[in-house]
Amino acid sequence: MTDTRTTPEIDVLVAAGGFLMKRGVKPYRFSLPKGAGIDSESACLQILSQASEWIVNGQDIRPIDFSNKGPDVVGISETEWWQVECKGSGLGKKSTLRNNFDRALASVVSYYCERPEGLPERYTQHTSAQPYLGLALPTSQTYMNELNRRVRQPLRKILNLWVLLYEPESKKIRAVSPEDSY
Predict the structure, then answer these.
(1) Which position among 15, 141, 143, 163 has the lowest Cβ density within 10 Å, counted as fewest Cβ atoms?
(2) pTM over 0.90
(3) Using CA atoms, how far apart are residues 73 and 95, in angstroms rounded to an integer?
(4) What ranges do the domains of the chain cover?
């Protein structure tokens, strides 16, 4: 059985960046999606540059660094340092989507640390910001089943792992804090 809709990872990434901006967190590094069925890097950059929801209260998110490794979105404020892993969803078999989920979960868990690391020079004054992890996924049935089965509240609390559920119809994030239920 397959999920019945596709959600490009770049859409999830843009929404996750917008969610951070609304929290007062300034995204400063992005890892652009790659792989089969994903738009070229230049197309992803164009989508990012046109993401009007990132202009919040006149904040400008530049300069932005791009990387081909690490979290998909990294951002910081005086009090919060976020590392977010994003996944889209395709029309693949459940086993393929579960594999994608497994890779996303393993990646976000591997980012866990007790304080901000590798900050750009312009943000070194924020070394006392609290680390937050984010797993940003579309609300596909397969991903929701995996979240309910394998990413329970005790794990989320220990890691300060927020699940950022992307709603394709509204193009918005529904944030699930470590204390909240799905």
Answers:
(1) 141
(2) no
(3) 26
(4) 9-176
User: What is the pLDDT tens value at each position of the chain, 182 positions in all?
Assistant: 345 678 988 899 989 988 998 899 989 888 877 655 555 555 556 666 665 555 544 556 566 777 778 999 999 999 999 999 999 998 778 888 899 999 999 999 999 999 999 999 999 999 999 999 999 999 999 999 999 999 999 999 999 999 999 999 999 999 999 999 99
**What is the C-alpha to C-alpha distance for residues 21 and 182, in angstroms, rounded to an integer?**
23
Q: CA 111 to CA 159: how far, in whole Å?
A: 10
21-36: string of b/e by CB count within 10 Å (b at 16+)? bebebbbbbbbbbeee
